[in-house]
Amino acid sequence: MKEHGFEVLMASADGTGREDAIRQEGCPHIIIPMTRKITPFRDLDALWKLYRFFRKERPDIVHSHTPKAGLLSMIAANWAGVKIRIHTVAGLRFVTAGGIKRKIMVTMEKLTARNATHVWPNSFSLFEYIQRKKLVKNDKLEVIGYGSSNGINLQRFSSTSLETVHINEVKKLIAYEPQLTYLLCVGRIVRDKGINELLWAFDKLYSRNDQLRLILVGSFEDDLDPVSEVSRSILKNHPGIIMTGWREDVEYFMSLAYALVHPSYREGFPNVLLQAGSMKCPVICSRIAGNVDVIDHENTGFIFEPQRKESLLQSLEKALSQPEKLKVQAGNLRVKIERYFDQRVVHERIKQRYMELLPAEKKKAIEKLLAVI
Known about the structure:
CATH superfamily of the largest domain: Glycogen Phosphorylase B
Strand content: 5-15%
CATH architecture of the largest domain: 3-Layer(aba) Sandwich
Number of domains: 2
Shape: globular
């Protein structure tokens, strides 16, 4: 957007990726201390800070991502008089919650939508779910292009872009041996990412074949949605499991893996499947909204039933017994991603939609600036 005449300001909670984002995007960033949990007093403080920020900067568009940032920024932007308020829905946390917590989360989603002028689910399956649950008025709902919040950088996620030195570093990290078979899971190590089921299934497979390895690339989170005690024990003691912690260089692990396993309970439009598909790393994933927008069962990957460990085990057994079929599926997935989810195409569609929403004088100002450039 910056390259196409927009002045972009970024805001988020602080975190490990902040400096990388500033360096990569070349746009100013401010910290708004938001939490992922329900923390009323801290949330009110963040809401006030966002309101003051919007009143000071007077943005034409506020575009939010993630549930908490969406709720706070859509309310604050509405109060501050911002005319174009867009919220991207990239998953619904209440899907895996129950009781009073679920009711609170549903109310939060509805409140976010009420204060937004446009709500963009990042997949068609998520769009249909939101419609079915009547979370958002139909005239606010829209999927941009074929889905995805950001698309995928096909230049980065390509085997031809990998550096030999870096490949060797990753091999050393995981004690790589060519005769072993590596399964890969990328994401936070929490319950609703399907880690309990994955660890159970892998343990069963390993008991029959000790040449298998499971690489877990992601942060272990023990406060928001912890895994079971059984899973903790497996993570601590299992000889076939490799935990790397949070990493940015996931494409290097995908280049070495036999397949990516993505057993998540809920998604919007999972970037990790686009990343794996771009690397021609075969995919085995759960049948949930978002995943099914990327993976066609038996054509571009294998799909199993979510939260069902036996279904996951059967899919893994099938995938391990059919390596040639997996390669064909991975090739089909790369073609699909090139056609629909190239990041340049996704960015262009978002930019076009921004331009359509802006008033005429703002569009003329941007076009004039670009003409000068």
